[in-house]
Amino acid sequence: MDIKQLKYFVTIVHSNNNLSIAAKKMHLSQPALSKMIKTFEAEENVELFIRKQGRISSLTSVGEAFYEQALDVIATYDEMMRQLEEKNSLIQGKIVIGIPPLILSLVFAHFISTFILKHPEIKIEIVEAGAHELKKMLLVNEIDLAILLQPTEIANIEEYVIVEDELDAFMSIQHPLAQQKMISWEQLAKAPLALFDDTFMINHLVMSYFQKLNLKPNVKIQSGAWDFLLKTTLETDFITILPAPIKDFVQQKDYQALGIQHPLSWKVTVCRQKKANYLHSEDFVLEEILQYFEHGVDE
């Protein structure tokens, strides 16, 4: 008896053992339904129903046990199919992800390319903007997911840390301080600085910490382009403060990256609004991001 026939059997029981009613529910003829039951009983040499004057009246003890087991099998099958259909439905749709340009280059380039090749049915749209703009877009549902730095300072969101590192001081290899093992905030405050502009969370992290230490930094240049900030230090006394992973993207012979005493954390988070229900594709993409950064960054 296959799953369809099991459902026929259960429908008969739920129809008070009335074949005519059950046949209508299953869009079958009554003779066909009756034949299916008799054939199964004959093949398995069992009696599922008690019959009176040729009519089904109730279940036998074997039939009752079979009925309970059939309910479990049908429930398991239906749940299995529901999950399969749900997984299939995930591989569809469009997700809009807001990412600051720096994080897109340093952290997300490989994930985005591999995800698109692996799941072509899901369209990923990238919105590049600074943290403040992305926060606004997330709150008004213009983007589904936002990649931000902590502290996010947004109410009613879910957030998950996916990358955690530190901010380093980058300078020319010829800078007078380049041979130090570390640099202090006091030394940074005295040097000419090239920093991210105030649309970037890194700017707020750095400037707030200077303020906390009662230091007035000598900020000469502000920009939204990390590569430009880095190039301002080449063969000059400028220093810029950037995420430590940028070391992997620069020529070591040209630049020196120093750890900062009492460093600031650089924590990248994936955020979304708290909702009662999410699109399957949104859940799927979020789970893929979390799994990638937990297990697959170095693969």
From TrEMBL:
Superkingdom classification of source: Bacteria
Annotated signal peptide: none
Membrane-spanning segments: 95-117
InterPro entries in the record: HTH-type_LysR_regulators, LysR_HTH_N, LysR_subst-bd, WH-like_DNA-bd_sf, WH_DNA-bd_sf
UniProt GO MF annotations: DNA binding; DNA-binding transcription factor activity
Keyword Iron annotated: no
Keywords: DNA-binding, Membrane, Transcription, Transcription regulation, Transmembrane, Transmembrane helix
Span of domain HTH lysR-type: 1-59
GO CC, alphabetical: cytosol
Membership in a protein family: Belongs to the LysR transcriptional regulatory family.
PANTHER family on file: HTH-TYPE TRANSCRIPTIONAL REGULATOR YBHD (PTHR30419), NITROGEN ASSIMILATION TRANSCRIPTIONAL ACTIVATOR-RELATED (PTHR30419:SF8)
Protein name (database record): DNA-binding transcriptional regulator, LysR family
Protein source organism: Isobaculum melis
Lineage, broadest ranks: Bacteria, Bacillati, Bacillota, Bacilli, Lactobacillales
